[in-house]
Each structure stands twice: as structure tokens, then as C-alpha cells.
Please model this.
Amino acid sequence: MLDQARMRTENLQARMRAHGIRKAIFTDESSIAYLAGFWGYLGIEFGRPTILVVDADSAPVVITPLMESEMVGEMTWVEDIRVWEDAGQRSWSRALGEAVGDDPGQLWIERDHIPAIVRNYLDEAYADAALRDISPVLGEMRMIKSDFEIEIMRQAGAIAGAMMAAAHASLAEGAHEYESAIAVIDAGSRAAAEFLTDRGWDRFVSPMIHNLQILQSGSDTSMVHRRASVRAYAKFDPVYFCFCNMAQFKQYKLGFDRMFHIGGVTDEAARVQEVAIAAQQAAIAAIRPGAIAEDVAAAANAVYRDRGYETGYRTGRSIGVAYLEAPELKAGDKTVLQPGMTFAVDGGISVDGVTAGRIGDSVVVTDGGSDYITEYPRTILLSDG
Model:
């Protein structure tokens, strides 16, 4: 992993030199993981920044809180680690100023992913420096996944498959949503542990599946991003599991979701779910090298229109170390697809706020078309109990 991160940083530095970029400041967790090979689990952004400063011609610098520096030092290939403390003269702003220098001319930042506290400091300390967005330069690199990255994503797919099987097995009339969430976490964590060792860099990667389970059931099935509650399932309930914030491994995120039905399915619910599946399958069939991103979305939208439903705003999104990368499968995105691009591809419609159809998978673009990263039946799915 660290050799890969080092090579990515060297690639970025070459691109920076080609664009005349001298210094870039990275504050997004996914970018730092991609380039420096480490991340934390604390989940606190405000007032506690971790920063990666990349110079086009010299070694990068990591700036991190002192209390986490031991772990960071073990997880990253970057040798220049500068620490800061919450009180006193050893502040993060002082460390950042020393890494940037007195007269950078231009500073390249991740404009949409920089904490306000860091942006405010740069505006004050470097009032004469032009701030530019480095995100498109790094984003272009991240579009095409290496074989190494795709293998990690396939491992994430295997973990996600175990999670979905556990979700399915948890369903029964009278069972509760939170019990399904517990089953998912347990199965995913056990599956992830099978891909890890307790040696070297691996020992800092937690197998634990975390984040709150997105679960929508019954009359709340169309309530997007609802969380698992104490609600009990009733007969004919639709139950929707979304793993988009949980199906991840070694920082690589997937899109993966399925709709189930408790004890049986009504004719209307089956009809709507079949439309969602057909639209998703039409989109996936359109994915191949040379295809245009918006044309993939158009293939799904044609299915919705032909069956009398309104189209959604997006059919898919690029995935990787972030939940949303470029390009997107939606109208207006004219990116030409290439082998190695990875997408979460969805089918989804809602009717009158209650009846809904949902399905989502992750795929990788191959020389001959596309290949699934996630696997679970793409049919009308009923509970076993």
C-alpha cells in the first residue's frame, strides 16, 4: 500500500511541474489516504486539522496532532512529519506556515474540501497569494484505478456481499430494523478480518464496519438516508438496505444496495422493483470503453420513460477513496469511459412517497465492457422468514 501511495505522490508531483504548480495543500481525508497512505478514525474536523503539503520538487510534509503522530508515523511513507499541540506555541498554523514558506506566490488547495479554520488562516497569512483548486489535477489521476486498487475494491465487494447476505437472513415478520443493522456489522467485520493480518501496515486497518446503517422499511421506504430504528417488520413490508456509507475497505468505498420484501410482495411493489432493476441493467449494459458518461444515464432514463416514470438526476457516480469522485453518470457529463474506471450504478424510483424500487451495484470498466465488483441476486428478493 505505501509503495503505491509513494508512486501516486510522485505522479502528482510530475503533473504539478507540468502545470507550473509549486505547492499544494491537501486537507481531505481521502486525498491524504490516497497520497500518504494513512487516515484516522476520530472523525473530528473542527479545530484539529491533519494536512499534507506537497511541493513539486521536494519531499512532502505531513502535519498532524502530536497525540496521533505515533500511529501516523507507522502508517505513512512520508518521512517529514510535523506535529502540533492544542495549546502553546506549537500550533498547526505555525507548522503549516513553516511548510508553505513566506512567499509561495500561488497556493493550490482542495477548494471544496478545506476546513474553514484552515481556509481562514490561509486568507489571512497569505493575503497576496492566489488560491487555486488542485482538485481537478488529483481527480484526473483518481479516475483510472490501478490493478492494485481494483483488487482492494473486489475485497470490499466480497465483504459487502457477506453484509448483504446477513441483512437478508435477518429479515422476518416481527424482527426489528436495528437487529438487521447489528447482523450487517457483525458479518462485515468478520469478513473484513479475513483479509487482514496483525503485522506491518495492516495492523492499523480496522476490520470493524462502522457508520449508521441506512435502512428504510414499510411506509418510510422512500425516505432517503433514513437510519435503522426499533421498528418491527410487518408482512409485505419493503425493506431497503443501502451500504454506500458502510461498504468500504482500506478506504476504498463502494455503492451497493438491495430491496427486500417481508413474507411476500404486492403486485405494485413487484412492478416498481422490476422497473428499477431493468433501468440499472440497461445502464450497466451501456458501460464500455469509449462510451460517454451521459449516454449511460440516458439508457436507464429511457427505461423509466418507456414505463411511465420520471427519471432521476443521476444513474451513477465514480467511486474510489471517496464516496463521490469524477465522472458521474448523468446528463451533461461528457466524459469518455476508459478501462479502470469504477462506478456505483443505481436503479431507483419512488411512487407516491410509499412504494419504491431500489437496486445498486459497483462495477469496473473493462476492455470488453464492465465487470461487477458487488454480487447479490438482481431479482425480486423475499425474506426467508
About this structure: The two ends are 43 Å apart (CA to CA). Residues 2-142 form a domain with the Creatine Amidinohydrolase; Chain A, domain 1 fold (CATH 3.40.350.10). Residues 197 and 203 are 6 Å apart (CA to CA). The mean pLDDT is 94.
